[in-house]
Amino acid sequence: MNFHLIIIIVTCIISIIAFRSALMEKCQLNAWTIGQGKEYYRLFSYGFLHADAMHLIINMFVLWSFGGALLYYFDILFAEKGKFLFLLLYISAIPISAFYSVKKNKTNPEYNAVGASGAVSAVVYCVIFLNPYSMLRLWGIPMPSIVFGIAYLIYSYIMAKKKVDNVGHDAHFWGAIYGFLFAGIFKPQLFVSFIRLLLEPFF
User: DSSP for 29-73?
Assistant: First the structure.
């Protein structure tokens, strides 16, 4: 079963409904409401909403691009537990990637966020961890995924500090960190494998 496709379909349906309904306001991530109103469901529900069609398309395209590869790796590494761990990674990454933003904005009722970016980042960086020299193409330029991963982490960190746009850079950063560590938490020897893969071209 292609679990990433199920997630994409469900997310698209919920997001499209929310574009023209009160669902957006009721389910978006609002740190103040979570703390004061105890609406903890928002820690998960916001990950299935998107600000507009382009936001939705970009996140779902990236999930489609990397989700299949991660399911393949997990099936090899974890056998029958692979699909469960894929779902666990994605679902748990939604609140975990938002934790810093929630803590930082707990007294700000004006702060709202939506999008699967944190969870999608977790999927992308889990793939990078398992295959750091897989090749990506950005604007037609090929590069090893580990190079992209490091560059994007630095970019997300800097942009989160600058606060010059409405993009959830904190969620991208913490989702990426979580995804990078996830597989190794369940199979610690993968950390050794990652170091060996990383050093392989130099020896």
Answer: B-HHHHHHH--TTHHHHGGG--SSHHHHHHHHHHHHHHHHHHHHH
Which residues are CB-neighbours of 136 under 8 A, at least 6 positions away?
142, 143, 144, 145, 148
What letter represents residue 8's amino acid?
I
Q: What is the pLDDT of residues 88-106, one digit of tens each?
A: 999 999 999 999 999 988 8
CB neighbour burial string for 82-115, b if at least 16 within 10 angstroms, e if fewer: bbebbeebbeebbbbbbeebbeebeeeeebbbbb
DSSP run (H or E) holding 109: none
Q: What pLDDT digit, counting tens, does each position of 58-87 carry?
A: 999 999 999 999 999 999 999 999 999 999
Alpha helices in the chain (DSSP H): 3-19, 23-27, 31-37, 42-45, 53-78, 82-104, 117-130, 145-162, 169-186, 189-199
Q: Among 46, 50, 116, 92, which residue's Cα sits nearest to residue 185?
A: 92
C-alpha to C-alpha distance for 184 and 163, rounded to whole angstroms? 32
> If you compute the radius of gyration of the chain from its CA atoms, what whole number of angstroms results?
17
